[in-house]
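In the current project phase, the collection of sequences with tokenised folds has grown. One resulting record follows, to show the layout:
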Amino acid sequence: MLKAEEQRLIKKAARGDRDAAGAIIRAHQKSVYAYLLRMSGRPDVAEDVTQEAFVRVLMNLDRFDPRYRFSTWVFTIARRLYVNACQKHKPAFDTDIVDGWQSSPCRPERPVEGDEQSDWTRASLDDALSQLSTQQREILVLFHQMDWPIALIAKHVGMPEGTVKSHLHRGRRRMREYLNEQKMFAEHEWEVWT
């Protein structure tokens, strides 16, 4: 959506136009849900926080500063609500749910062994991601899954760009180390399937 169109819809929604509010929600809902699902690993938490985030967004449209990106404002609200929800819910990763959100449909021509290996790889990556601190996990998800630039992530999490880069580097290294530790298990699992 072009910024001018988005601004027009925001103004209309702030005046009570339900169609404009629906268009704003549709434009950002999937990415906010995907972000929260990856952060929490729990569909119930991601769904609840996404819904609450958009309720807050719609109630406070008059507070939005049009000099900034609307998506950043929405993600900031969602992030704050997620942090609050973390006090109630401990993150638990469910690879099948996360995979179902982003994956392409199953294709019959794919070999079963490849599917098993892909499932194992996704599970391993989710396990490695769960080993990170919440801050590192958020930065890696925003950078690699949401394709946010370093400058935007830095502004979103409220830290210098150099610190964000350090978290990216350390988070990747920690994931790599974890996956290397799991290598013996991985080789054993692959032998079982081949």
